[in-house]
Design a protein that fits this description.
mainly alpha, single chain
Length: about 150
């Protein structure tokens, strides 16, 4: 059961993080929102490599950190709530949204684009949570067996 939840969570994390990123990019492009949805990625890389770092290494480490967050939060969800109704994935993602929303605006100096940031961020987390909840619910039923709530 531990192996199945870990593999399911890791797989769900990759897919849900991809859906999260794609949804934020689409929202920004479709609605012509003046916001870089990936502004935090190089900041993550600089936190890992040092504030004076730049270039490809910063971007690569930032992407790896971002992906690792998505995967590890998905594994945690899978162990805690993965066998529940898929809507729990949305609730989980909204908890992550609250945590992120309490840090990112001042950290990334987003005061001038708070409305846009809010729309893009909440939308992305709704997609992440939906994909995560559906994936975990579906594949844990297959890999572990049992009848979970729909």
């Amino acid at each position: 059961m531990i192996r199945a939840k870990t593999i399911t969570g890791m797989s769900a994390g990759v897919i849900a993080t991809g859906a999260y990123d794609l949804s934020r990019l689409l929202i920004v492009k479709l609605f012509n929102i003046p916001l870089n949805p990936f502004k935090a990625i190089p900041v993550f890389g600089q936190l890992i490599l040092g504030a004076n770092s730049s270039g490809a290494a910063v971007l690569i480490w930032g992407i790896l950190y971002h992906l690792l967050n998505g995967i590890l939060f998905a594994v945690a969800y899978c162990f805690l709530f993965g066998n529940r109704n898929w809507k729990w994935g949305i609730a989980w993602a909204m908890c992550l949204e609250i945590a992120m929303f309490s840090i990112y605006p001042s950290w990334l100096h987003l005061q001038a684009v708070m409305q846009e940031f809010t729309i893009v961020s909440i939308s992305g987390h709704l997609v992440y949570g939906s994909v995560l909840g559906l994936f975990c619910n579906r594949f844990l039923k297959i890999n572990i067996g049992g009848s979970y709530g729909n």
